[in-house]
Known about the structure:
Layout: E1 6-17, E2 25-34, E3 37-43, E4 51-57, E5 61-65, E6 67-72, H1 88-101, H2 105-121, E7 124-131, H3 137-150, E8 153-160, H4 166-170, H5 182-195, E9 202-208, H6 216-229, E10 233-237, H7 242-251, H8 255-261, E11 269-273, H9 279-287, E12 291-294, H10 296-301, H11 309-315, E13 318-321, H12 334-349, H13 357-364, H14 366-372, E14 387-391, H15 403-409, E15 416-421, E16 424-428, E17 431-432, H16 437-455
Parallel strand pairs: 1-4, 1-5, 6-7, 7-8, 8-9, 10-11, 11-12, 12-13
Antiparallel strand pairs: 1-2, 2-3, 5-14, 14-15, 15-16, 16-17
Amino acid sequence: xxxxxxxxxxxxxxxxxxxxxxxxxxxxxxxxxxxxxxxxxxxxxxxxxxxxxxxxxxxxxxxxxxxxxxxxxxxxxxxxxxxxxxxxxxxxxxxxxxxxxxxxxxxxxxxxxxxxxxxxxxxxxxxxxxxxxxxxxxxxxxxxxxxxxxxxxxxxxxxxxxxxxxxxxxxxxxxxxxxxxxxxxxxxxxxxxxxxxxxxxxxxxxxxxxxxxxxxxxxxxxxxxxxxxxxxxxxxxxxxxxxxxxxxxxxxxxxxxxxxxxxxxxxxxxxxxxxxxxxxxxxxxxxxxxxxxxxxxxxxxxxxxxxxxxxxxxxxxxxxxxxxxxxxxxxxxxxxxxxxxxxxxxxxxxxxxxxxxxxxxxxxxxxxxxxxxxxxxxxxxxxxxxxxxxxxxxxxxxxxxxxxxxxxxxxxxxxxxxxxxxxxxxxxxxxxxxxxxxxxxxxxxxxxxxxxxxxxxx
Length: 458
């Protein structure tokens, strides 16, 4: 039987939200998967002649590209619901870093399993985990293995602090996470990338903590390492109003302007948050094709500010969505992030047309895949078969005249029925099939209590 007449998996009868501008939404549609790729997209009638190893009746569902989370911190999963009501830098120095210092390798691995399960159940197929607690190579690789064990793909950006900068020292941020010199951090990251190079299901990138308080040589070295090894690199940048002010006081410029001056912006550079940018900095980010991971829920949680979304996209930046960590968002649910991405723009500008559902859906799928360099994000022949199937029959999704709008405004992660990564079903009937969810939750709960006690935060 030829490949043209067979497939491994046929999803048929659903509303197929392709995210392909030419195809749009295919009502009573079908998606065929052969190996790890989409082999055909069309109406159910058009694909009815395919002989499928498995056929899934998707009537009453939306079938869309897998969601992509471009910024999270899975290690925070054991601190969920703690640390409320603190500005970001105090939250870091007085809560998150003492917590992080109390984590063991096994704590971090279990937290990663917990977060990856939550993400997969909510339709996420790929994620970028900015991991820095603990950040020894063995733990970084254990975290990557945990994400892969659940069935997801993506990146673990190895968090680095390097030699304490003057900003870190002056603002009380030079604690235990500044464990190694800049040169040592870069060599440790090189070893991690060698173990999980580009093309791995879960690869490793350099991930300096934050442009504002990281050693400048560490940032230059991270960008150089990414160019040499063919990876991206990832760092927090301009997250709060304080960031550019503090940086200007220390260096006479702003974080983004400094990155631009040193040629560190570009397609390999992915900045988390990127909120507080001037007009000139927006142009710098856009003209260089730099990517920004937009975290609308955590930005509101910390009262950090509102991203200049349309200005950045119009300037040429790649903007995608991130959940951020479970202690600064509390949920690994990109449906929530899509809705908030729209609403925060409208409220901030007092303009109901400041953002729309289609834009948010693009950020969570097509643009997220662009940021991670994954050949997914669109349901089209030849693309990776990363797919999310969302049930539309619940009262809160009835009726759904506009399927895309219903997904953004009404759907929740708990509405996901099936998550498929590279043609493999990793979530079915709302539960992960590769791992024992109940055992992970039970162990995470025990470890969370122990970590909080050791860190002295409860």
